[in-house]
Amino acid sequence: MSSVRALVAVLALLATSCVAADAAPQVAIETSTSTPTATIAPTTTTTSTTTTSTTVAPTTTTIPDPYETLIATAKDSTPYLVAYDGPDGLPLAMPFRSPNPHQFGGPLTLMVTEGQRGDDWLKVQLPIRPNGSEGWIPVDDYIISSTTVRAEVDLANTAVRVFDRDELIAESQAAIGNWRTPTPLGTFFVAAIRENPPEESYLGTWAVVLSGYSEVLETFSGGLPVIAIHGSNHPDRVLGRAISNGCVRVPNDVIEFLAEHVPLGAPVVVSG
Which range, 6-10, 22-26, 50-54, 179-183, has the best average confidence (pLDDT)? Predict the structure, then answer.
């Protein structure tokens, strides 16, 4: 009986071994649960930067010379003075015509009161009434120059002084307008320089004609009462006195100096 049991045990063992041998072998498979990673080369964005180099010319500021006065001298092609109410403006109405050349000789000349060299238009003082009138002129009709000379008439001290910049180059006692026909105050300019004829020796040898007029006389000797600095044939009788009809009288040697050294267009300041 025991032998039969032993045989059954052996058969069972063999059956188990056969089942194990007939089974499919197990294969280990590496399962990845992650999504495959794609390596993407980094995108390089190149921004083209355009560099614009702008060369700005340095601004040159010219400091005006405080002693310089610009002068506008009419060209021969300009027959008479035409002034305007502004650059490219309308012509101003004139009380009378100012011819070129000046009625006392020499070219029509004006003192510039506003503007600088290179401008197309300049503001000038006009040799008309009322005193101190101004207008604009086109530069194309004029020759522009300058001076550093000026004259001053000191009515309070009956004196005339001439300066070149800040240097006093001439000084003289003078005769001035009387209380009925005073010498007008203001800033004027030399409009003409006239050598007086022998028949007008009472005016001295020369006259420096100004751009101003008497403010109390309408006419004088049949014409406009223009103010002038002129000589005298009797300076010893008049100098230092308020005796004239508005003009300023100086000795002949002084007026000859002024006629030579104070140019057309130069300022003449009359103060009280």
Answer: 179-183
